[in-house]
Amino acid sequence: MVVLIVRLIFMVVGGIGGYELGELMERSYLQNLDPTYSIIGFIVSIIVCVGLGFVIGGAAGRYTAKLLNRFEVAIQDIPGTDLLMGAVGIIAGFLIAFLPSMILFRSYPGWVFALILYAVCGVIGYIVAVQKKDDLIALFRPSRHYASPEEERKPANARILDTSAIVDGRIADICYTGFLEGQLVVPRFVLNELQAVADSEDPLKRNRGRRGLEVLNALQRQEHVEVRIEEMDFPELSGVDTKLVALAKALNLPIMTTDFNLNKIAELQGVRVLNVNELANSLKPVVLPGETLTLTLIREGKEPGQGVGYLDDGTMVVVEGGKKFIGKEVRTVVTSTLQTAAGRMIFASMGNRERGG
């Protein structure tokens, strides 16, 4: 389409030029000859110039199309605010150059300097507007409360991640669903501990450390959260858990963890703790006495005759009289539930059909 438009423009310009050329030929060479020669001269000059416009316009159109494609690709990487502020900066630069250019345009060599002045002021205006766009935009925003350095250091919905929560990996799934937003603060000493575990000679520790680093990379690609590396350290303290509690107090932020011991230590010192395991337990479906559950018994229980199975969410179910059905899928009736620090346990009895069989 671009090639066609440019080619038509060149052909129209060529036609006009051919007509002017025909008039020039008539005045200069064909004025005293038969009018037929003048008409032929007009037609030939117009056809030749239109043909040249067709050829040159095709080449110019293809070149213009390539330039437009390059421009389209390049402009995709430029933020819209940069384009807007750049245009404002160029206009401001032209306005600044307007007054002195009025004086320069009065003389012949002066207008050359005026054009240079416009170009320089436009470029400077563009650079300044793009580089200082945040400050310029802030000037037009309503006045607001300026936070202190401590308040700026504590963004809304910020949480400190410890090593166990990172290695656990469920935090990345929670962020992916959009239930967790804001900023996740990863202390530098926690990152160093992860790196040390990932470089361990023990294969199990090495795999856990590498999994933690992969989870961090996944979190950095999340849209709903922002991962910030906190450089504050406490060299006088020993142990990552102790440093985490001190950092949480300094920043007035909660700690997100799956470590039971860290949970208790932090709570004793008045630091709020967000335990991923407690969140997982709270999301498990509620089971009431009298409801039926279908599951596969996989091992014996601690008491005689008991069988043990697990629900899909990992909840352990202890079934009275289920020992002889180990390895089979059975239908059970819930008798009671027990909530412990490690999670929830369900006690059940065999259904009438299984008991009768």
Précis, in short:
The chain has 357 residues and is an alpha/beta fold.
Overall, the morphology is elongated
Number of helices: 14
CATH architecture of the largest domain: 3-Layer(aba) Sandwich
What is the number of beta strands? Answer: 10
Q: What is the CA-atom radius of gyration, in angstroms?
A: 39 Å
Taken as a percent bin, the fraction of beta residues is 15-25%
User: How many structural units, i.e. domains?
Assistant: 4
What level of helicity do the residues show? 55-70%
Topology:
Elements: H1 2-28, H2 35-76, H3 80-104, H4 108-131, H5 133-139, H6 149-153, E1 158-161, H7 163-168, H8 170-177, E2 182-187, H9 188-198, H10 203-220, E3 225-230, H11 240-251, E4 255-257, H12 260-268, E5 273-275, H13 276-282, E6 292-300, E7 307-310, E8 316-320, E9 329-340, E10 343-350, H14 352-356
Parallel strand pairs: 1-2, 1-4, 2-3, 4-5, 8-10
Antiparallel strand pairs: 6-7, 6-9, 7-8, 9-10
Helix pairs in contact: 1-2, 3-4, 9-10
Describe the 3D structure.
This protein is α/β, with parallel strands linked by helices. It has four domains: 2-76; 80-137; 150-282, 5'-nuclease (Rossmann fold, 3-Layer(aba) Sandwich); 292-356, OB fold (Dihydrolipoamide Acetyltransferase, E2P). Helix content is 58%, strand content 17%. The protein has helices spanning 2-28, 35-76, 80-104, 108-131, 133-139, 149-153, 163-168, 170-177, 188-198, 203-220, 240-251, 260-268, 276-282, 352-356; strands spanning 158-161, 182-187, 225-230, 255-257, 273-275, 292-300, 307-310, 316-320, 329-340, 343-350. The strands form two sheets. It has a five-stranded parallel β-sheet with strand order 3-2-1-4-5, sandwiched between helices. A five-stranded mixed barrel has the order 6-7-8-10-9. Strand 4, helix 12 (260-268) and strand 5 form a beta-alpha-beta unit. The longest helix is centred in the N-terminal third of the chain and has 42 residues, at 35-76.
